[in-house]
Amino acid sequence: MSKSKNDIAWEQIFEKHRILDKIASKGSASICSVDINRYREARLMTKFDHRSQLPKLFIDNNLSILPTSRGTYEIGTFETFCDFNNEDVEVTPIDFPTFLESIDYKDITSEATAINCAFVSKILHDFTNENSLLPTVSGRMSSSLFDFKINSGNGLFKVKVGNSQIEIDGGYEGDNSLSIIEAKNYISDDFLIRQLYYPYRLWNNKITKQVRPIFLTYTNGIFNLREYEFVDLELYNSIRLIQHKKYAVQEGAINLEAIQNILDSIKTVKELELPFPQADSFERVINLCELLKQRGFLSKDEITQNYDFDSRQTDYYSNAAKYLGLIENAQESNQIGCVLTKLGFSIFSLPIIERQLEFVKLILSHSPFKNTLKLYFEKGNTPSKDEVVEIMKSSKLYNIDSDQTYRRRASTVLSWTNWVLELIEE
User: Fold this and answer.
1) What CA–CA distance (Å, rounded) separates 215 from 209?
2) How far apart are CA 199 and CA 211, in angstroms?
């Protein structure tokens, strides 16, 4: 696997500044942006929102990096990330103000728009249980001065922060609390605790009201809100999930009859000479297409570096979207990447419910998925992986040559089939 520009630059920095030796003797190593900039822009070299984005040297040595002031960083065996919980949460339907013309919940293209939609539709009011809620703080600001402890490979490590730059996506104050919101418009497995902790420490020291760190993610019509607390103010890793809710604008419902009609009427397409999908999360296939609709073009490196995909996942999920005809290869400024197809653009211009039904049609037009769902309805429960493998073997798929590969791909068939079934409202 080829090394990224970040990997190469960090290897040079580690060698020049004897980073591993310093960590072994002192527990951490300090470095400034001036030194990093000699190899590559520090802004690009230090932005790791997810574990998957860490350079190889960091991953191999269980390292992470934290800003301690404007232009200085500390590298050590710090536990800087927190996994998102995976519990299934029921979606709460909400109404969107019909008189608004300047904001469209069907076309959310940025974190700022997602937060604005959550505010005007009273999602934030419901989630925080604050009837009076007003936007008060956002943007870049200084963290102020504070110390904290963080879990590391050698026990608790003390970090001193002196006016590090922080950014708050949205701050909303009510009668009883100030909610500090970090927003993302893509799906991820984990997040950088610092994005909630530094703003929390700043505002907890400034006001008497309760400060509530909230993480908001938006994708495919779903607003996902998680509220956290820090049980120990001075312990970075004392983060704890308090509540988690999902919201969606009420547009109608998909019933069993609608899925059954598609299953009965859809024509099966001939399998193309494309890799059969190995991408278990259909939500992430959708999310990749959403990002392409916003950005127009993304190279493989941009997907891997900017979102929570490792290099293999970027291949798996882009290939899955190509398999469905949603994206295609493209080239821009001598970079190979991908763009939405005309079909992709037309589907992502539809209201959410219609969009979901179009996804169902694309999935069920392929015989492995169609016959698996048919078997589900015949049996009344989920087919076994062995049954799915037999269905796949009868479908003359491209480039699957072993039972082990069939079984891996069968996981995707079952996951996508379950995604279709989960659309059905009782």
Assistant:
1) 19
2) 9
**Residue 334, token pair as written in the block:** 């001598």
Spatial contact of 126 and 133, defined as CB atoms under 8 Å apart: no
* Best CA proximity match to 413, nearest among 275, 280, 315: 280
Mean pLDDT along residues 191-204: 97
DSSP β-ladder status, 133-142 and 81-83 = unpaired
Laid out side by side, the sheet with 145-152 consists of 28-32, 72-76, 64-69, 155-162, 145-152
Tell whether the model's pLDDT for residue 339 goes beyond 70: yes
- The rounded distance, in Å, linking the Cα atoms of 44 and 375 is 49
Token pair of 163, please? 């006016």
- How many angstroms separate the CA atoms of 238 and 372, rounded? 44
Beta sheet of 335-340, edge-to-edge order: 298-299, 335-340, 327-332
In DSSP terms, 424 is beta-bridged to 254
Query: Beta 327-332 vs 335-340: how paired, if at all?
Result: antiparallel
Model confidence over 222-244: pLDDT tens digits?
Answer: 999 999 999 999 999 999 999 99
Q: Which two tokens stand for residue 28?
A: 């951490």
Q: Are 351 and 358 in contact (CB under 8 A)?
A: no
Q: Tokens for 220?
A: 């495919």
Q: How far apart are CA 200 and CA 138, in angstroms?
A: 13
Burial 281-312 (b: 16+ CB within 10 A, else e): bbebbbbbbbbbbeeeebbbbebbbebbbebe
Distance of alpha carbon 359 from alpha carbon 95, whole angstroms? 24
Whether residue 404 is predicted with pLDDT greater than 90 in this model: the reply is no
C-alpha torsion angle, residues 256, 258, 259, 261 (rounded to 10):
120
pLDDT of the residue at 1: 55
Answer whether 0.90 is exceeded by the pTM: no
Helices (H) then strands (E): counts for the chain = 17, 17
15-74 per-position pLDDT tens digit? 999 999 999 999 999 999 999 999 999 988 999 999 999 999 999 999 999 999 999 999
Question: Under 8 Å CB-to-CB from 264, ≥6 apart: which residues?
Answer: none
Bridge partners, 245 (sequence order) = 225
CB 58 within 8 A of CB 23: no
